[in-house]
Backbone:
């Protein structure tokens, strides 16, 4: 059968109906207000291309270098031509039309939305890459379905799948057909801050249909609600110049100017905010994870149009979060307030970080080739075609758009600072003008600041309570990049429990092999030494535990020189960690050389940690390579990650090989213990670091290590959870390494548990 009704669809059907349809089916089953509809299944698309014999030519056409803008454009055009020029079989056409006629009175306007089988996953969002068509009726329905199929090969979709390591021939597409909500007002709702994960509900709202908000073509009102108190913290009323509505004569979706009396009028009432907050919390409770929800209001009724996991929250940088900045630029105010110094104008800080560079005004796609490394793209709104140039840029500034615009979503995923919805950046800035943007505060300042002035003040990370809780359990901190070491040190942590070398390597933009070929071995080792030394100096004499390279092949494939990387179905289970290092000892010795030089400089607080170790054989081989590199394992602290059940069960033999410590990586240990691929939306709800089997592996390992005199630690995200801290402290773990923003909370939790254990022992 070509179609399935949303009433019959559930999350387990994601492979058949795609992420969007599966989510809508779940929301419908949960009793949430979802418009009626059906889905043209992914199998229908697959049968269409295979029975027509265009599948092999289609996949060959999109097998291109995704960094080549022209190649991407040609690939998209050929794929679109193949699909649109191939007729749909009569039985498929009849099935779609018949379902449409059963929807309402058979004369309804419908929304036709793509629903790819690899979108809306917990760790990667492919949403927004395929087409959506509004106010469609029977005469255009089948053609719009085909347009959705063809949009599976849009330029952004091709680029993104390549970067994420998703083979094109393994991704299918379904199409959702729903009754249109002729929205008077609409927008999006985040149940947590989309960049930082702070407990804030953020609502964006505009007049008319929500596509204007999602596409970034209008700057919406912005409402920030404190989840704990339910109070509205800030209301930013934007100058809403245009809206998307249905033309009553033609039925087409058109842009119209917002009437003068509504341009600067607040879209949502307090009562509507309360209702949206309640619905958002119900959606999050249903899925158990922060959600990005699209909504619409018609006739006083609120409808839920879509929900997907928020995939852009960076917990390690949550301490950098700032309240969403006022959208002065969108209201035509180009002057900074008193004390803002050289602020030219403001927008919404949609992707955190500070970037300086020359403004590159992009008003046509032809201008993209002029964007060089380190430039700041300034444009009215970004489009999928701009993604390769956005990756080269150091920052993004747009005239229009909100927190869910293309610019905001892609910038957060690429890790590029962005300020959106400024209102007039393309008109106020000159091409080549040096500027500095702050993606946290939403400001654009004149001039390029010196690098050392671009870091966020460390005061935000400094504990608000001055007295550090004294605990027998050491509380350390996770540091993703050396540049964050100063803020991390300000937390008062007992050291760094995890500093990742792969972040230093990935920041080079080239694979190690390519970087060495271009710059020499010494230059590569120098980069590693500089990164490690930055953190070691900041924390000295507190210990800094540095993990050797653990980059999966899909991450390396994104870098220059990554074309030779193997394509693995699940890179997390593949060629990474110590197995990669041992397989390529010539390259691994450069990392070990960096450690040798660090010790020669006097940084004896550095400890070495090997990732994804399975057994004592791995440990012995790594130890022997340490010796060959001139690092004495008898004098230096070194250990291994416990990320697999094999490592946990074999820790005694690894201890005999001489390790000083072990550290639990809960993300991987949970994934491998429960057979849960965190990138698979069908099973992601089963990912639970507090599962009894995971806890038993950790508890037994701690007990064994205590008997053998081996220190134990944890450096996974779960270390910031109170329940995990309670369990580990009770078991006698040596140290806990938390995210920067969670250090003081974990210190207090550890102290509370230790005091309870002491009281229990004397009662």
Residues:
């Amino acid at each position: 059968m070509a179609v399935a009704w949303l009433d019959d669809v559930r999350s387990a059907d994601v492979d058949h109906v795609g992420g969007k349809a599966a989510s809508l089916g779940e929301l419908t089953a949960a009793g949430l207000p979802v418009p009626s509809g059906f889905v043209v299944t992914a199998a229908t698309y697959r049968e269409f291309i295979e029975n027509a014999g265009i599948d092999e030519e289609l996949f060959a056409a999109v097998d291109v270098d995704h960094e080549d803008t022209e190649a991407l454009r040609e690939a998209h055009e050929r794929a679109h031509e193949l699909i649109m020029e191939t007729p749909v079989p009569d039985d498929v056409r009849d099935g779609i039309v018949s379902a449409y006629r059963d929807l309402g009175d058979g004369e309804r306007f419908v929304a036709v939305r793509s629903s790819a089988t690899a979108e809306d996953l917990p760790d990667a969002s492919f949403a927004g890459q395929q087409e959506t068509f509004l106010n469609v009726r029977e005469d255009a329905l089948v053609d719009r379905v085909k347009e959705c199929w063809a949009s599976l090969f849009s330029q952004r979709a091709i680029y993104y799948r390549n970067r994420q390591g998703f083979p094109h021939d393994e991704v299918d597409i379904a199409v959702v057909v729903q009754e249109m909500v002729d929205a008077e007002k609409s927008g999006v709702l985040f149940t947590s801050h989309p960049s930082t994960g702070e407990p804030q509900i953020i609502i964006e709202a505009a007049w008319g249909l929500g596509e204007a908000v999602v596409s970034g073509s209008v700057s919406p009102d912005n409402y920030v609600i404190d989840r704990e108190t339910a109070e509205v913290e800030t209301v930013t009323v934007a100058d809403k110049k245009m809206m998307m509505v249905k033309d009553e004569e033609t039925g087409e979706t058109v842009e119209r100017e917002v009437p003068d009396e509504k341009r600067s009028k607040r879209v949502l009432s307090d009562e509507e905010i309360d209702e949206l907050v309640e619905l958002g919390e119900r959606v999050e409770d249903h899925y158990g994870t922060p959600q990005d929800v699209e909504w619409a209001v018609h006739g006083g009724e609120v409808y839920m149009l879509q929900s997907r996991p928020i995939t852009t929250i960076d917990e390690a940088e949550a301490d950098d979060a700032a309240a969403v900045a006022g959208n002065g630029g969108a209201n035509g105010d180009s002057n900074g307030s008193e004390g803002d110094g050289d602020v030219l104008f403001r927008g919404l800080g949609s992707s955190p970080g500070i970037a300086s560079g020359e403004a590159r005004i992009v008003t046509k796609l032809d201008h993209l080739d002029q964007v060089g490394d380190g430039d700041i793209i300034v444009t009215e709104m970004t489009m999928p075609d701009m993604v390769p140039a956005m990756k080269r840029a150091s920052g993004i500034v747009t005239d229009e758009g909100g927190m869910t615009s293309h610019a905001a979503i892609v910038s957060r995923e690429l890790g590029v600072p962005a300020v959106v919805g400024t209102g007039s950046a393309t008109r106020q800035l000159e091409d080549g003008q040096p500027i500095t943007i702050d993606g946290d505060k939403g400001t654009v300042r004149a001039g390029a600041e010196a690098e050392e002035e671009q870091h966020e003040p460390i005061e935000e990370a400094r504990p608000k309570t001055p007295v550090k809780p004294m605990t027998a359990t050491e509380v350390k901190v996770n540091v993703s990049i050396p540049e964050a070491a100063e803020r991390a040190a300000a937390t008062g942590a007992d050291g760094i429990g995890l500093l990742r070398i792969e972040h230093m390597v990935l920041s080079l933009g080239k694979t190690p092999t390519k970087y060495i070929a271009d710059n020499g071995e010494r230059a590569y080792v120098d980069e590693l030494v500089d990164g490690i030394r930055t953190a070691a100096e900041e924390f000295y004499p507190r210990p800094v535990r540095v993990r050797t390279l653990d980059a999966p092949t899909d991450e390396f494939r994104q870098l220059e020189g990554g074309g030779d990387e193997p394509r693995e179905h699940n890179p997390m289970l593949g060629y990474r960690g110590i197995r990669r290092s041992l397989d390529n000892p010539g390259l691994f010795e450069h990392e070990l050389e960096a450690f040798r030089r660090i010790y020669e400089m006097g940084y004896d607080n550095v400890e070495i940690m090997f990732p994804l170790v399975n057994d004592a054989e791995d440990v012995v081989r790594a130890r022997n390579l340490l010796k060959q590199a001139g690092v004495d394992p008898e004098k230096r602290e070194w250990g291994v990650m416990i990320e697999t059940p094999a490592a946990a069960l074999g820790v005694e033999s690894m201890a005999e090989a001489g390790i000083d410590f072990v550290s639990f990586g809960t993300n991987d240990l949970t994934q491998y213990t429960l057979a849960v691929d965190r990138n698979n939306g069908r099973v992601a709800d089963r990912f639970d670091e507090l599962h009894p089997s995971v806890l038993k592996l950790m508890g037994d390992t701690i007990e064994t290590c205590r008997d053998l005199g081996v220190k134990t630690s944890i450096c996974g995200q779960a270390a910031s959870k109170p329940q995990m801290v309670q369990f580990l402290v009770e078991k006698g773990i040596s140290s806990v390494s938390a995210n920067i923003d969670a250090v003081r909370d974990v210190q207090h939790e550890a102290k509370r548990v230790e005091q309870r254990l002491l009281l229990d022992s004397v009662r």
